[in-house]
Fold:
Amino acid sequence: MASDGARKQFWKRSNSKVPGSIQHVYGAQHPPFDPLLHGTLLKATPKVPTTPVKAKRVSTFQEFESNTSDAWDAGEDDDELLAMAAESLNTAVVMETANRVLRNHSQRQGCHKPPGALGPEQKPKPSVEPPSVPSGDLRLVKSISESRTSCPAGSASDAGPLRRSQSLPHSATVALGGVPESSTLSSSALSEREASRLDKFKQLLAGPNTDLEELRKLSWSGIPKPVRAITWKLLSGYLPANVDRRPATLQRKQKEYFAFIDHYYDSRTDEVHQDTYRQIHIDIPRMSPEALILQPKVTEIFERILFIWAIRHPASGYVQGINDLVTPFFVVFICEYIDDEDVDTADVSCVPADALRNVEADTYWCMSRLLDGIQDNYTFAQPGIQMKVKILEELVSRIDGQVHRHLDQHEVRYLQFAFRWMNNLLMREVPLRCTIRLWDTYQSEPEGFAHFHLYVCAAFLVRWRKEILEERDFQVKPESKTLQTERRRVEQPQEETHLCLRVCGAFTKLII
Structure:
């Protein structure tokens, strides 16, 4: 009897799991256990008395921000961002997010029926605003089985390797950067959203000391055109955060740049430098947009910027590809003085000479800041580019093994098509306005041009995986069959750019 009593007491004291006990199963076929969805199960299951344990500390939004380097700001209220932030992201959630982004985009591209001809499962949503989040609990998670979106049968196969059955943040299908579908939001509402977003930037920039971390988070989803120039100067480190110091800094840096011009530029015809200047002079007319670059004043500005940078950086000197990196900065800064919406064809002859001098100096220093982080791309043998191409190959093999195996099967080497992606930062693959939008996000990332750019390249490959997998003849340069061919389709760059940024944002969470 004593032994029976001791045995009974043992089972009372023990709280360890034994064979046959009911445990929640997690995996590809079983979504995480959610108390909101399984409340009846909790009520039916009696609680087993256990010894008191230390309560798990609730994850805060500040902790989420410190561990996340991007912000998928769709222009909604901050409450929606808090709901997204309260989610505990994991590998399967991220993969499902990327998968649904691709499926939904393919569905929108493949559906050309009028709204009245849509089926019951394909009716457009009346609003892009998410449902209100209960004040008592910010966790708004739906099981895939209960929140499955309609998708054409063909589009589901386009992202096969990314398929998962897992819980997903409710707002994962909302368009990024305030660019919703035309059928879901009126132009007036879009204008209100853009105005609200611009006000946030202006309030942040109006303070005596700009919070650069907040500015990066706000800029990740795109920067409004009226404040893009000042924001780029701050994010690149060219201007200080303190407002009172900025005028003196601008004056000093502009004076320093033109001192370089006076000291070095006359040596461009010397024997030691004439080859460098000749190559710059040859490369500039090949740049785009031609209507802007070929204007004599702009050509002279680009020649001075590139020559001075090459002279002051003898470790690399001038390398083809660096010239393309001048254009986005120049275009963004010149827009402060030009009202023309189409800056590609803008006439800079109407810009005052003093303003052009300021734009030239600002462009030089911001480009220098960019190249400081990727200068190994342009040193002897360009080791930085070769390393980045190798990392890209590894990323694609982990993200989409089918595409990687297809390229390997047809003996397509990543260096053959991705070298220019790294050398020109996709400047030759996408329109200029699309590049500027990409650079908004690059500059908001700690190592956007050196590190985040790799995920963008991987996202582009996954975006056009269907065309890549259908291709059997890669004798023509692969980039011409992927991005250069698709460039004609990117007539609405905001949609394509936001899509790829969302996908690569998911990839960064998955891989890191």
